[in-house]
Amino acid sequence: MKIRKILAAIAASAVAASAMAVSASALADGQKAYGFGGAQVGWDIDVDGDEEADIIGGANGDQWIGTIDPATGAGSIKIPCTAGDLVEVTCQSWESITDKPIFTITVDGTAYDCYYNQPVAITVPDSVQSTLTADIQWAVVDETQTEDGNYNDWCGNYVVVTAGGGAAAAAPAEDAAPAEDAAPAEGETTAPTTGNVPAAVMASVMAVAGVAVVASRKRK
Fold it and tell me: Which of 29, 36, 67 lies closest to 159, judged by CA?
């Protein structure tokens, strides 16, 4: 009888752990997701890896915030947010290119380099009331070039906005102990920028760390 109780407890613990894992990957309260990129992106996008669509309809949906001009690789996105929110921009284009930026995003005069699947975190400036306008300039034309210009019209990317998240990410707890692995491991890289370094702390947006855009990588 004791063995049965032990086994039941183990099973219950496993179920609880599984539930925690699922909830950890989902968008949290106060978070919203938006897509941008090529006009041919017509599929749903899952940004948190839980196999449930977070952005419906791609370029044809209500969560699409900007289409890049295929002739110039340039365009603007208009992100619904307000001062103090945390905006995370994730490039999901050209997974075969990991050593150079795919595009740059310029916010309030600062340009950030966006590498594949390395979120760039930006705190929304105090001047923003309802919409943050950001300029996109594509850098990759194809797998061998890194010049401004044309890009694949099937490239899809996304933004996650956390309400008030910028303030939370910028203010660590006073008694917080420093992370043991604060320094990157040998050979590990972070996403450099041409302006400010992207915030390393993602606050309540950690759901985006394991981002995967399902069926959104038609690029050739």
Answer: 36
Within 10 A of 95 (CB to CB), how many other CB atoms are there?
A: 13
Task: Give Cα separations from 181 to 175, 178, 186 (angstroms).
Answer: 18, 9, 11
Assign 35 to helix, strand or coil.
strand
The Cα 66–Cα 136 span in angstroms is 9
Distance of CA 201 to the CA centre of its chain: 13
Question: Residues 100-129: pLDDT tens digits?
Answer: 899 999 999 999 999 999 999 999 999 999
3-state secondary structure of 193: coil
Query: Are the C-beta atoms of residues 216 and 92 closer than 8 Å to each other?
Result: yes
Q: Which residues pair with 86 in a beta bridge?
A: 123, 162
- Distance in angstroms (rounded) separating the CA atoms of residues 206 and 202: 6
DSSP code of 62?
A: T
Asked if 33 and 160 count as a contact pair (C-beta separation under 8 A), the reply is: yes
Q: Which residue in the block uniquely carries the two structure tokens 């990129």?
A: 37
* pLDDT tens-place string over residues 164-219: 985 554 444 454 444 444 444 443 333 434 333 333 333 333 333 333 333 333 33
Give the pTM: 0.64
CA-nearest of 220, 212, 219 to 33 is: 212
What is the enclosing helix (H) or strand (E) of 2? helix 2-25
| CA nearest neighbour of 164 among 98, 105, 218, 87 | 87
CB-based burial label for 107 (10 Å; 0-12, 13-18, 19+): buried
